[in-house]
């Protein structure tokens, strides 16, 4: 699915240069469920942003479906992103002014799909994540778990082949967290590649493989026994 | 710790000042937009204010000015375009003074003449005011040399102003020195200076720097000046008695007009029986106007002949005052919109101040202080801008305008007052809005305390701003279009390649002059006429259609026709082809109007050419029917002429299209020639001008030359309208710039607030263009609504404006104008919002998504 080769990323803030990713190399196969772990500030989110093409590396190569996207411009990246990648965030990032259905539809809005088909797909995915009865509500009227389910629905409604989840359970209590993890697992079973950043060793257990990051470097990779 | 109360106040004030200043610096973009916008608004106001101050306060410079009035006249005859003028006839003054002796204390006539002053071998054009001796009772002029008692007592006493004394003599003590004027009663006269007066102020309608005590005898040869009822050639002033009002005099004059004046008989002689239910005052207008109203209001009475000095235009002034106020209003709206939009950013400050004990009043005052400070900074920029622009502005308006704040405390006070008013006006809503925050809500909430109400208000204000802009664009386009239309209209004749030479003072040398001029290689033709196009003397007489010898009926009543005197070759020179019959031709030998040698009842014969309007007036549906018919008219006192119609020519626009075409008649009458129309070819214009001047100096040595290009005279008719168009364009542009500034600020702010949403959309696959479209569309809706609102208002206003033009743009012009105005506003709005939207849309969404 994707390969990172000697990827480096640094941030310049005033006088200090911070190296967020230092020579990161690994690959992820199609259909894998990978967890990325590590202490705060180790570069997890930066790594996820680069994988999700929201950010570009300073050096190194990034092959996504056999294309080196490291040097692509914003528009090219946006086109690949919207076709293949869905995002789930810790703070859900739903738009308060839009309803649940409209938030989910947003992911299809930029795909050139007819309105009828969009409505159809949105309805299907809402059924799937069990949020159909809340279609007309605003995000602020939902519980955290429900909001994250909306976010999951939004991430998969376009049939994306990979989901990037940035601490998807970080803002949820344990039962809701469990619920979301089960949902991700089910998606993985259906063939969706999932890359998840998490602090929770418990939720990392859902992944087939865990990549441990420290100070911008890959320290260990554990593969869970099948 | 506890200082004196004043000290505390000062500390507080200093603290507010510091907070205000830091806020100003911190929010550079918003402060910049506000200061720039307000500066443009204030600049427009100051420019208009200077113009208004210059235009108002006319003719209040002398004692008793409020009691001085002028008599204006008008002939509004049935089936004719009205003839209005600020002049009156020579006999009205004495008659009205005698009849309205309870109201009128004194009356005086002014006969204004363009003469020349001869000093040695030099000749200077000089306007001369021939006035009745009572003129100085009405206009008390200040004497530098001589005195009221001694210097203006006898006919032909002459007063000159200080400037004129210095011009002709280089000093002011010139009583007893002589000036030779040319010509009075066709002869040069040498008159001694009997007194020197102070220069008249700039703000007077009088054009008087040389006055001569009028000796009525000198006009004996021109009875139409002083001895006529129907020829309107003098300016008549009255001074009212203490306690008498303008209305009383007007009423008295109307009574005289209907019951005592000779106009009823004149009407019957020229037009026929007065229809029942009509009074003579329905047709002959005598209007009394206070002199202090003349400059701004006499335009309505002035017709096509104007006044002693160029008149102001009250409607134009009101229009521009409104426009300036609108620009300032747009700038104030910017301030309100940006201040309330940014309110949430300052909510914490307000809450903390309240927690620490500030009252709502104190906080409101703090914000008001900030807005006044901002306006005062803007005022400084505005004043600097006015200084830079003033020379060009003065030139455009043709006025001497000055900005002298220190020497003009009332102006300074007005401007400071304006600044405080604007500051408070723009600041009051944000101040109340911001000071109303509840501390508990603000401090515990993580989001801004924005209500949806203030957001809607902002959109409403943006709609209002852009609606104003749309109206101004429509107005500009229509004024411009009408000006183009006026200047490009087919007047019906050729006016290029023509010079107009005034030959009024060369009457006895016309043949010699023509001979010399026609010798010039570039001159094709020289034709004498009474009037050149653009000149308008309103010469009217009654012409009666007689029955024909073969039994066709005549008309019982005479028709009032405007008449021109032209030489052979006139129609040829102007390329006007007759639609029936022929033009004047020496081969016939019978075309000329000849003044009978002997007084008597003998009937003289001559030829006439009429225009199509006149032919219709005589009932000829086909111009051919008019040919050969006879008109009866009295051209000289007690003499009858029978004129055979030899040709009918098309209606041509001889004067500005602001005025309609009159039924007119052309006669070949040599004693009325005032102009040489010189038709030239070739391109060496400077040489031609030089040669014409040389010939003039040789043939008419003692007269200054008045030589003009006809094309320039034609353009000058629309100069004022062109100025209006330019001013409108400039102020509309300013209004749009200010409105766009506000839109830019608001768009920038909104985009800032929507950063997270934009981030989400980008993650969902939105491209930069999608985001830009989203943000631009958000502001397109209010602008489109503004366009829909602006259209009807603009159309209504400008249709009203166009009513004043007998020949005007067709109504369908409003369609492209409105479309253009709409597109322009929309494009400008897109451009304004789009630039910032692109910047925001390009930002990496990562940062906005991680944290709230």
TrEMBL record, chain A:
Annotated PROSITE patterns: ABC_TRANSPORTER_1, ABC_TRANSPORTER_2
GO molecular function, one term: transmembrane transporter activity
Highest rank taxon of the organism: Bacteria
Keyword ATP-binding: yes
Cellular component aspect of the GO annotation: plasma membrane; transmembrane transporter complex
Alphabetized SMART domains for the sequence: AAA
Domain (ABC transporter): residue spans on this chain: 2-225
Alphabetically ordered keywords of this record: ATP-binding, Nucleotide-binding, Transport
Family affiliation: Belongs to the ABC transporter superfamily. Macrolide exporter (TC 3.A.1.122) family.
Protein name (database record): ABC transporter ATP-binding protein
Source species of the chain: Neptunicella marina
């Amino acid at each position: 699915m994707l390969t990172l080769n000697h990827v480096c990323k640094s941030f310049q803030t005033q006088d200090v240069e911070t190296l967020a990713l230092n020579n990161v190399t690994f690959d992820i196969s199609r259909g894998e469920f990978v967890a990325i772990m590590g202490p705060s500030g180790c570069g997890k989110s930066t790594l996820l942003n680069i994988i999700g093409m929201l950010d570009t590396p300073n050096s190194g190569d990034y092959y996504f479906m056999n294309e080196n996207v490291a040097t692509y411009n914003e528009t090219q990246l946006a086109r690949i992103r919207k076709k293949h990648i869905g995002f789930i965030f810790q703070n859900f990032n739903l738009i308060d002014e839009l309803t649940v259905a409209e938030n989910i539809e947003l992911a299809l809005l930029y795909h050139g799909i007819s309105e009828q088909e969009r409505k159809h797909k949105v309805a299907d995915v809402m059924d799937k994540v069990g949020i159909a009865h809340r279609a007309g509500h605003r995000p602020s009227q939902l519980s955290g778990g429900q909001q994250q389910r909306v976010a999951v629905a939004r991430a998969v409604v376009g049939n994306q082949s990979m989901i990037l989840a940035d601490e998807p359970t970080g803002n949820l209590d344990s039962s809701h967290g469990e619920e979301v993890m089960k949902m991700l697992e089910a998606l993985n079973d259906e063939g969706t590649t999932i890359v998840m950043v998490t602090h929770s060793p418990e939720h990392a257990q859902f992944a087939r493989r865990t990549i441990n990051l420290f100070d911008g470097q890959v320290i260990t990779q554990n593969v869970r026994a099948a | 710790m506890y200082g004196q109360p004043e000290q505390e106040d000062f500390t507080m004030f200093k603290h507010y000042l510091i907070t205000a200043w830091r806020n100003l610096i911190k929010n550079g973009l918003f402060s910049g937009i506000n200061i720039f916008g307000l500066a443009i608004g204030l600049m427009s106001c100051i420019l208009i204010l200077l113009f208004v101050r210059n235009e108002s306060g006319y003719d209040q410079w002398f004692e008793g000015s409020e009691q001085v009035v002028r008599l204006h006249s008008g002939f509004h005859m049935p089936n004719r375009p009205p003839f209005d003028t600020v002049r009156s006839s020579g006999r009205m003054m004495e008659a009205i003074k005698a009849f309205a002796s309870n109201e009128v204390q004194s009356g005086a006539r002014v006969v204004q003449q363009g003469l020349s002053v001869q000093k040695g071998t030099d000749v200077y054009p000089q306007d001369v005011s021939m006035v009745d001796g009572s003129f100085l009772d009405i206009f008390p002029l200040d004497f530098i040399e001589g005195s009221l008692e001694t210097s203006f007592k006898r006919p032909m006493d002459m007063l000159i102003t200080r400037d004129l004394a210095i011009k002709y003599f280089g000093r002011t003590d010139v009583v007893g020195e002589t000036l030779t004027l040319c010509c009075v009663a066709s002869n040069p006269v040498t008159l001694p200076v009997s007194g020197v007066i102070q220069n008249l102020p700039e703000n007077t309608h009088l054009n008087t720097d040389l006055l001569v005590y009028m000796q009525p005898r000198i006009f004996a040869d021109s009875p139409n000046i002083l001895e006529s009822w129907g020829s309107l050639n003098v300016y008549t002033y009255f001074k009212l008695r203490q306690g008498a009002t303008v209305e009383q005099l007007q009423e008295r004059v109307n009574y005289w007009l209907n019951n005592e004046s000779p106009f009823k008989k004149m009407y019957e002689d020229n037009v026929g029986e007065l229809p029942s239910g009509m009074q003579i005052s329905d047709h002959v207008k005598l209007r009394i106007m206070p002199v202090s109203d003349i400059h701004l209001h006499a335009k309505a009475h002035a017709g096509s002949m104007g006044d002693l000095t160029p008149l102001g235009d009250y409607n134009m002034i009101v229009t521009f005052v409104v426009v300036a106020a609108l620009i300032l209003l747009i700038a104030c709206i910017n301030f309100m919109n940006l201040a309330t939009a940014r309110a949430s950013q300052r909510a914490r400050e307000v809450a903390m101040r309240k927690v620490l004990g500030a009252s709502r009043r104190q906080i409101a005052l703090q914000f008001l202080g900030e807005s006044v400070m901002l306006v005062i900074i803007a005022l400084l920029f505005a004043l600097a801008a006015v200084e830079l622009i003033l020379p060009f502005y003065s030139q455009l308006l043709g006025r001497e305008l000055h900005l002298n704040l220190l020497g003009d405390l009332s102006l300074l006070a007005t401007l400071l007052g304006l600044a405080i008013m604007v500051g408070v006006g723009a600041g009051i809503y944000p101040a109340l809005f911001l000071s109303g925050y509840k501390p508990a809500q603000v401090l515990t909430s993580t989001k801004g305390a924005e209500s949806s109400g203030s957001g809607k208000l902002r959109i409403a204000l943006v709609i209002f701003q852009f609606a104003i802009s749309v109206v101004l664009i429509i107005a500009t386009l229509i004024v411009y279009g009408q000006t183009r239309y006026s200047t490009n209209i087919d007047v019906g004749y050729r006016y290029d390649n023509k010079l107009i030479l005034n030959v009024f003072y060369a009457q006895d040398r016309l043949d010699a002059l023509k001979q010399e001029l026609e010798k010039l290689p570039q001159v094709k033709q020289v034709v004498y006429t009474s009037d050149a196009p653009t000149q308008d003397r309103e010469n009217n007489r009654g012409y009666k259609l007689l029955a024909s010898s073969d039994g066709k009926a005549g008309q019982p009543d005479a028709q009032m026709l405007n008449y021109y005197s032209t030489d052979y070759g006139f129609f040829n020179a102007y390329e006007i082809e007759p639609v029936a019959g022929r033009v004047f031709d020496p081969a016939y030998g019978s075309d000329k109007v000849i003044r009978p040698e002997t007084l008597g009842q003998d009937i003289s014969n001559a030829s006439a050419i009429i225009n199509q309007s006149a032919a219709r007036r005589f009932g000829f549906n086909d111009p051919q029917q008019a040919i050969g018919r006879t008109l009866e008219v009295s051209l000289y006192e007690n003499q009858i002429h029978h004129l055979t119609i030899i040709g009918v020519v098309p209606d041509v626009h001889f004067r500005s299209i602001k005025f309609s075409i009159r039924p007119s008649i052309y006669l070949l009458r040599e004693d009325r020639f005032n102009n040489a129309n010189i038709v030239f070819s070739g391109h060496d214009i400077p040489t031609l001008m030089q040669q014409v001047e040389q010939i003039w100096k040789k043939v008419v040595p003692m007269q200054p030359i008045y030589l003009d290009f006809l094309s320039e005279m034609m353009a000058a008719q629309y100069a004022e309208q062109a100025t209006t168009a330019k001013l409108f364009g400039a102020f509309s542009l300013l209004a749009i710039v200010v409105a766009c500034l506000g839109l830019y600020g608001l768009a920038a702010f909104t985009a800032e607030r929507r950063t997270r949403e934009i981030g989400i959309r980008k993650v969902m696959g939105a491209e930069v263009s999608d985001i830009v479209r989203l943000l631009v569309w958000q502001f397109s809706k209010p602008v489109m609504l503004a366009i829909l609102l602006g259209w009807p208002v603009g159309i209504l206003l400008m249709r009203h404006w166009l009513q004043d033009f007998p020949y005007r743009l067709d109504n369908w012009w409003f369609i492209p104008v409105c479309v253009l105005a709409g597109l322009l506003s929309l494009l400008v709005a897109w451009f304004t919002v789009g630039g910032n939207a692109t910047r925001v849309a390009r930002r990496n969404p990562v940062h906005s998504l991680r944290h709230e």
